Amino acid sequence: MRIIFVRHGETPWNVTLQYQGHVNVPLNERGQTQARLTAERLVRLDASALYTSDIARAAETAAIIGQHLGKTPIPMPELREIDVGKWEGLTPEELYRRYPDHMAEYQRDPARTVRLGGESYAQLQVRALVALEKIAAAHRPGETIIAVSHGGTIRALLCHIIDLDLGNFGKMWLDNGSLTEIRYGSHGWRLVRLNDAAHLEDLVAEGGE
């Protein structure tokens, strides 16, 4: 079985480096183009199913992909981004200025520090693993599954798969519209492709989480 994770297309808040969490920020024009180009690349794979986070930026990306693949996206709340609580709408600079003690705690333990009113990365990882288990249980060996999610959620899952300490999640980066693939075989889940953005040409831009 192979699962191809797609990070949603770009939003205005990605450009301005504002934390989005669970807020419903729509794709911008570049994000819509990224989603379309991603769909055109995925159409050749004969995927069995298309899952998506139910947050707007992921759901919109999945809808565009689904139109090209002839698949109706299946909402899966477990694929949501981390709940950032009071971080929502703020930039990193604003966070450090507004909540210096909290951010010092976060720097000491980024995996287990709970965002103010939100989740920790450790809690996110548990939720992401539930999504993986549900998808795996619903499909047979040999199938190809597409799942549209978020940079934080995908990286939390990858840390588990490659046995990387969760505190190092920030050392991986996923571009908007990129593909990351895992496959299940005799050795369990393996990461076989990370942040593949070859289909996006000059549409990749380093933005916020």
Task: Record the SSE blueprint.
Layout: E1 2-7, H1 12-16, H2 29-42, E2 49-52, H3 56-69, E3 74-75, H4 92-98, H5 100-108, H6 121-138, E4 144-149, H7 151-161, E5 179-185, E6 188-196
Report on the architecture of this protein.
By secondary structure, this protein is of the alpha/beta class. Helix content is 37%, strand content 16%. A 6-stranded mixed β-sheet has the order 3-2-4-1-5-6, with helices on both faces. Helix 4 (92-98) packs across helix 5. The model has no long low-confidence stretch (mean pLDDT 95).
Characteristic terms for this protein:
single chain, alpha/beta, 6-stranded mixed β-sheet, 37% helix, 209 residues
Order of helices and strands: EHHEHEHHHEHEE
Number of strands: 6
Radius of gyration: 16 Å
Largest sheet: 6 strands, mixed
Instruction: Give the class from helix and strand content and strand pairing.
Output: alpha/beta
Average pLDDT value?
95
Sheet with the most strands: spatial strand order? 3-2-4-1-5-6
Backbone shape: globular
Assembly of the depicted chains: single chain
Q: How much of the sequence is in beta strands?
A: 15-25%
Distance between the termini: 29 Å
Counting DSSP H or I runs of 4 or more residues, the number of helices is 7
